């Protein structure tokens, strides 16, 4: 298996915050699929959704995963929250390296995305209801895509990173 660590999970579960810190600690490259898409498209995620629609964005996500599969090693990769929803992406994610699902409760997510305006899928009057709805659809996809699951709800970034490192010592080695 490739020596990458891929973080999946719902919006606001801490993929980017944890990923940047973990990469630094391991001396790995940090990559973020949303950031790669924004760079390639020259547009924000909201602009892409607005001008070309969600399906177009999902195609860009799959393209990025294919590219990463060809050339990436020793990277911590943070992914958009909808990435594991496509069967094709699930396979691409799992062949890219060790997939870790950062789980979080609805309440923890709500706290973290309150006031957020950059996520078109959360641009709803009742954010709580929307998060609950999406979470219940997505949870089985996250779980079936992941090699391991870490609950981040009441934990600091530091705690989560330590847990990931412990998992790495016990279950897989990165070199
Ligand atoms: C999405 C999550 C976002 C981004 C886009 C769609 C989703 O990324 O890819 O807004 O479908 O959950 P984050 O999970 O990094 O917020």
Write the layout of secondary structure elements.
Elements: E1 5-8, H1 15-26, E2 29-32, H2 33-41, H3 45-52, H4 54-71, E3 75-78, H5 87-96, E4 98-103, H6 106-113, H7 127-145, E5 148-151, H8 157-171
Parallel strand pairs: 1-3, 1-4, 2-3, 4-5
Helix pairs in contact: 1-8, 2-4, 3-4, 4-5, 6-7
Bound molecules: shikimate-3-phosphate (S3P).
Architecture overview:
By secondary structure, the protein is α/β, with parallel strands linked by helices. Helices cover 57% and strands 13% of the residues. The chain has helices at 15-26, 33-41, 45-52, 54-71, 87-96, 106-113, 127-145, 157-171; strands at residues 5-8, 29-32, 75-78, 98-103, 148-151. It has a five-stranded parallel beta sheet, with helices on both faces. Helix 1 crosses helix 8. It is globular, with a radius of gyration of 15 Å. The protein starts with a strand and ends with a helix. The model has no long low-confidence stretch (mean pLDDT 94). The structure holds shikimate-3-phosphate.
Question: Keywords, please?
Answer:
175 residues, alpha/beta, 57% helix, 13% strand, globular, binds shikimate-3-phosphate
